[in-house]
Amino acid sequence: xxxxxxDGYVDxxxxxxxxxxxxxxxxxxxxxxxxxxxxxxxxxxxPIDKIRSNPKQHEKIIREADFIVIVAGMTVPGKYLxxxxxxxxxxxxxxxxxxxxVVLGGPIRLGFSLEGGKKASSISQxxxxxxxxxxxxxxxxxxLKDGKLEDPINIGDRFRxxxxxxxxxxxxxxxxxxxxxxxxxxxxIETYRGCGRKRHCSFCTEPFYGKPDHRPIEDIVLEVQxxxxxxxxxxxxxxxxxxxSYQAIDKGGELPVPNPSAIESLYRGIRSxxxxxxxxxxxxxNPATISAFPNESEEILYIIKKYHTCGDVAAMGMESADPExxxxxxxKVFPDEMFRAIELVNKVGAKRGITGMPELLPGINxxxxxxxETKETFRINYDFLLKVLNSGLLLxxxxxxxxxxxxxxxxxxxxxxxxxHKKEFLHYKEKVRKEIDLPMLRKVVxxxxxxxxxxxxxxxxxxxxxxxxxxxxxxxxxxANLEIGRxxxxxxxxxxxxxxxxxxxxxDVNNAQLRLLQRLPGIGKTxxxxxxxxxxxxxxxELIDKTSIETxxxxxxxx
Length: 559
Fold this sequence. Notes:
Blueprint: E1 3-12, E2 15-17, E3 21-22, H1 24-35, E4 43-47, H2 48-53, H3 55-64, E5 67-74, H4 88-97, E6 101-105, E7 129-131, H5 136-143, E8 144-145, E9 148-149, H6 162-171, E10 186-190, H7 217-229, E11 234-239, H8 260-273, E12 279-282, H9 287-292, H10 294-307, E13 312-319, H11 323-329, H12 335-349, E14 360-368, H13 375-390, E15 397-402, H14 417-420, H15 422-444, E16 450-460, E17 463-468, E18 475-478, E19 487-495, E20 499-505, E21 507-508, H16 514-517, H17 525-534, H18 540-547, E22 557-558
Parallel strand pairs: 1-4, 1-5, 3-10, 5-6, 6-7, 10-11, 11-12, 13-14, 14-15, 18-20, 21-22
Antiparallel strand pairs: 1-2, 8-9, 16-17, 16-19, 17-18, 19-20
Helix pairs in contact: 1-5, 1-6, 6-7, 7-8, 8-10, 10-12, 13-15
């Protein structure tokens, strides 16, 4: 039997699987197949972008597969550097080409949408495709019995258990080697899913997973160990709504009490089985947890700082600073509570680390189109961000999006503000980018900052775009055509709203293009032309003698 896993990509509030990330779903499915007796050499993986790159070649693979599992779903879609999520037409094309049984699963079960501000449409009946209504990994496992493939019509939908994914996470680790980006892939790691709040945010899909189901520390560590053995070096503990609440203790309050010792054991365990990892980042903390338990939260943040790698981001969902919107939609915190959470993360992590980025910074998420939103909401949100900027605190990322209303959430059918305030939303978003994002980014990575280990990913004209591997990596544009797929250090020379321009570090003055020499920090056109005209140089002393170059520039160059 030949099985094919097609990755249509996922982006959820508490799970990410867009290149260079590979989601847990892919690995769990591969592991479930192996757990049922399929050999690893008979399990194949293709991301949708790979299929697009050579449709005819991959059409043959699709036709020959006995069993195809498609994973997809963007419940909080964003903009991606070099990946495009699967669309409905592509799903239909695959279903028409396939000769084997086809199963579709992932968060797409909740609805389909590729952008905010629109209702999620239900997946209509695709020809020859069975849509899973619970966990696709469990469905796959149940379909494979005694070496045979059952008819999906006869299989019930169910959620998997933490015991099952303990097996599947380890057994499915091998699949990462088939990723086109391997070994430059980020493995999203699950600690738990499901929201522990008594009242949920009106728009969130995480409650559909039920009550929090925490994985044992040992299971997570063993999964990381298997991934590490397969060559994984980049990890993000990102599949949970609030890392501060991992294995927290429920004492009957609105929120469980954080458990610092569990976080310490988890991070220490990961470091022990993956001693040469290159990135260990996180995602998602609840600012309400910080507000309710500041001491325990601070202890956990210092534990994370002790074991992680720098450039980490703690994304926090504020969603709105408007008190009326907060009340109507069951949001987590009021502005003063959010401000204190931002202060605490800055206290722990604002110092610059060895990669050039600060150790750990907060990110903040806003959602528009919620119940109770008025035109005044945009001013209130802007004023809050301005307060953060003027206070000297740092934010790594400000995410602003419009709500997608999924059936079954309280916002469904009540998101009229999305359409009513579209013009105001676009104006406000542009204002935030210009007046908040830009000056904030200049503080996070000032001109002259040296950023280490930037992976070069895309060539567009005369510009190469790259990012550091990690959580919410900064987009870096380099004004040169460089080899894709390699790492380099760069010097920041300019800022956009959400990206920076940089040049290779140290810049080789004997071989660099004139336009790169002209972009060195603190250098003028006359000096750069002189350096270009007088080269080559045998050493720094000759460079200084011939050009009278300022010594401050020497730290950015080499001979």
